Amino acid sequence: MKDSVNNNTDADVENHKVENDKKEVHSQSMHISRSVDEAYMVAERDGFALLDIAIDESRLRNMLDDDSCGAFVSFEGRVRNHNNASSVDRLSYYGYEELAVNQGRQIIEKAKNKFDITHAIAIHRIGELEIGDIAVWIGVVSAHRYPAFDACRWILDTIKADIPVWKQEYYEDDSSKWLSNNG
Q: Could you give all domains of the chain from N- to C-terminal order, each with its CATH number?
């Protein structure tokens, strides 16, 4: 009987370690490794970054000022209070920062080659977000409106499909569900 108790205790200790390791991994994927200023510099230079605080859309907009561009198109994806028939309380976004930034840079480069745009910047939030918070911001500038509109939508759709960011949705009853980031 004593061995059974010790085995259960050892198993409990091991389970506790595993749960703590999972929490640590999740916690690390909810915060960026750069300073906020560095993240904005990466976004300006490479076109994409993750951010773990509120997005400053006017700062991003200013990065896209260009006298040769007659069009500026932006998109703000915000946390809404429902998903289908469920009342949503909040979201958590988790991201793999280095891979996300690398893939995001490639997406912006492809957009520049695919559409006649001058520049584009996109930022995706990670961490805890409340209803109304901006989860993703995209801005595109070009000489004319059609390429800017087309590029903005394409960038959003491609980010949602390809960037390693995962969403956990929390409901009013304290339950949660992992969702794809493309819905």
A: 31-179 (3.90.1170.40)
Give me the phi and psi of 122, to 5 degrees please: -135, 140
pTM given for the model: 0.85
Contacts of 109 (CB under 8 A, 6+ apart): 47
How many other CB atoms are found less than 10 A from the CB of residue 83? 15
**Encoding tokens for residue 158?**
């491609």
Residue-by-residue DSSP string for 55-104: --HHHHHHHT--TT-SEEEEEEEE--SEETTEEEEEEEEEE-HHHHHHHH
Query: What tens digit of pLDDT does each residue of 46-84 get?
Result: 999 999 999 999 999 999 999 999 999 999 999 999 998
Residues ≥6 apart with Cβ < 8 Å to 141: 64, 66, 69, 71, 72, 73, 117, 118, 119, 120, 148
- The letter for the amino acid at 119 is H
Confidence of residue 40 (pLDDT cuts 50, 70, 90): very high
